[in-house]
Amino acid sequence: MKNAMLEAVSLVLEKLLFMSNFKFFSSGAPGEDKAGNTLYEINSFLRGDVLEVPRTHLTHYGIYLGDNRVAHMMPDILLALTEDRGLTQKVVSNKRLILGVICRVASIRVDTVEDFAYGAEILVNHLDRSLKKKALLNEEVAQRAEKLLGITPYSLLWNNCEHFVTYCRFGIAISPQADKFCENVKIIIRDQRSVLASAVLGLASIVCLGLASYTTLPAIFIPFCLWMAG
């Protein structure tokens, strides 16, 4: 029962994170014209470097493997529908990406720098400074990334592109972005106004829809859980 509750809470948090960052997934698909109009100083990247692409709300990460190749984790619904590599190796569109996030299927794949960044600015090894952790040797970082290539489960909270990169770079899979989101959720939950608001909405649903199990139970259960969590 406890594991089921944890899975339910995890699922809710992932959906909240997904919805709060929906603009990230809709800010332009890889392979669009914007990607072709940007030139990158590929010669300045070293094998094993962490490449970061800042977005509106999230940052996408990859490991540079050399020769204009970047290993990165990408959600992709096609991986659950076909084994045709001719299809799955094409640049992942926004629709494929969003459905992949929802269905929690992804792959650690290799793309060109242009397809990885699709027109955005690239930061190099910024995680080294922000996390203040000692990085592994670049060659070991690249080898770790190459060993992980292939299909993998995906989770916005527990297994995303940042987890992949930090494991390769530092030997430990962490995601400060996901941690920050969870902290913000905790702040909201601990705010007693959230309990009051949920109680009012619950009472309103009972008044409008009548006294039934599908209205009464949430009206009692949700405020109680928020109160206990706070």
Please render the helix and strand layout as text.
Blueprint: H1 2-20, H2 22-25, H3 33-36, E1 50-54, E2 59-66, E3 69-75, H4 85-88, H5 94-103, E4 105-111, H6 113-117, E5 123-124, H7 126-131, H8 138-147, E6 150-153, H9 161-170, H10 176-190, H11 192-209, H12 213-229
Antiparallel strand pairs: 1-2, 1-5, 2-3, 3-4, 4-6
Helix pairs in contact: 8-9, 11-12
Number of strands: 6
Mean pLDDT across all residues, rounded?
Answer: 77
Radius of gyration, rounded? 21 Å
The secondary-structure element order is HHHEEEHHEHEHHEHHHH
Q: Sheet bearing the most strands, described?
A: 6 strands, antiparallel
* Content-based structural category: alpha+beta
Q: Note the quaternary state here.
A: single chain
User: Kindly, what is the distance between the CA atoms of the first and last residues, rounded to a whole number of angstroms?
Assistant: 22 Å
Form type: globular
DSSP summary: helix tally: 12
**In what order do the strands lie side by side in the largest sheet?**
5-1-2-3-4-6
Helix content: 40-55%
Quote the beta fraction: 5-15%
Poorly predicted segments: 22-36, 226-230
Structure characterization notes:
With 230 residues, this protein is an alpha+beta fold. Helices cover 53% and strands 14% of the residues. It contains twelve helices and six strands. The chain has helices at residues 2-20, 22-25, 33-36, 85-88, 94-103, 113-117, 126-131, 138-147, 161-170, 176-190, 192-209, 213-229, and strands spanning 50-54, 59-66, 69-75, 105-111, 123-124, 150-153. A hairpin with a 2-residue loop joins strand 2 and strand 3. Helix 8 (138-147) packs across helix 9 (161-170) and helix 11 (192-209) packs antiparallel against helix 12. Residues 22-36 and 226-230 have low confidence and may be disordered.
